[in-house]
Amino acid sequence: MDLFNNDFGINLTKANPGLSELELAELLCNYLNSGDLKILADPNLSTERVISSSGCQCN
Fold first, then answer.
1. What are 13's strand-pairing partners?
2. CA atoms lying within 13 Å on the CB side of residue 28
3. Integer angstrom CA distances of residue 23 from 12, 29, 33, 35
4. Of 2, 7, 12, 54, which sees the most CB atoms within 10 A?
5. Which three-class secondary structure state does DSSP give residue 52?
């Protein structure tokens, strides 16, 4: 999960070198919300441990 998300972020910044930190954070938040990143599942659920970030909300 960490390696996947790290690679995603590295590739995103390489593809968008002129973004400010705020613009990059907003873009990453959009990718998180749309399920493009990986998160850990609730360990109490009987699902896979690493799942899509679909439905996550940025604060």
1. none
2. 20
3. 12, 10, 15, 19
4. 12
5. strand
Hey, how many other C-beta atoms are within 10 angstroms of the C-beta on 8?
A: 16
Give the pLDDT confidence of 6-43 residue by residue, as tens digits: 999 999 999 999 999 999 999 999 999 999 999 888 77
The tokens of 55 are what?
């439905």
C-alpha–C-alpha distance, residues 47 and 20, integer Å: 37
Half-sphere exposure for 13 (CA within 13 Å, toward CB): 10
Q: Where are the domains of the chain?
A: 2-52
Cβ proximity of 19 and 27 under 8 Å:
yes
